[in-house]
Write a structure and sequence with these properties.
- The protein contains 9 helices and no strands.
- It has helices spanning 2-23, 30-37, 41-47, 51-75, 80-93, 98-104, 113-136, 142-162, 168-181.
Length: 185
């Protein structure tokens, strides 16, 4: 029975990833989850009390995997500048990943304060990955620099998600350039 519930929960999370990837947070509804998994709508409520709970669990499951991929890319880089570049590039590569949609969905207004705090803490762990490299590059306030760098990454992510102007590779190049050289060309 426990294995069956675990499989159903995994199927619901996978369906949620697909819905988020295809239609954003508006597409993530309990009727849509029920349809995708073949469960009755009332059964979905046995696993999750709300859409916010689905998003929170997706973040709890997917964010560590996403962060591990960023960490691995940084570990493979040689030197602090290459680590900064890997930090930016890997996050932007992950924009198209279905798991990323769950991370983006964390800004949904219906999340309660506790869920937002857990997600903020996880995001803080991501930012913490780059602090040492920024310190090695000579930043006097590497934690502040890391938070600002993440702001550049977040803006680039939003630009890529819009998908209406530049190619994702052009956005990535601009973000890496800004991260390594500031606003100088």
């Amino acid at each position: 029975m426990a294995e069956h519930r675990s499989m159903q929960r995994a199927a619901l999370l996978d369906a949620a990833r697909t819905l988020l990837s295809e239609g954003g947070t508006e597409a993530l509804t309990f009727p849509a989850l029920a349809e995708r998994t073949g469960l009755a709508r009332s059964s979905v409520y046995e696993y999750f009390r709300s859409r916010a709970a689905v998003v929170e669990e997706l973040c709890a499951v997917d964010f560590p995997v996403w962060a591990a991929e960023v960490s691995a890319a940084m570990a493979a880089a040689d030197g602090p500048e290459a680590k900064v570049e890997a930090y930016v590039r890997k996050q932007l590569e992950l924009v198209g990943d279905r798991r990323h949609r769950a991370v983006v969905a964390i800004s949904a207004s219906e999340l309660d304060a506790g869920a937002r705090e857990k997600i903020r803490a996880a995001h803080g762990e991501l930012v913490a990955m780059i602090v040492e490299a920024l310190g090695e590059l000579g930043h006097g306030q590497p934690r502040l620099a890391a938070m600002l760098l993440q702001g550049v990454v977040d803006a680039a992510v939003r630009r890529i998600e819009l998908g209406i102007a530049e190619e994702p590779s052009a956005v990535a190049e601009a973000a890496v350039g800004m991260a390594l050289r500031g606003v100088r060309g």
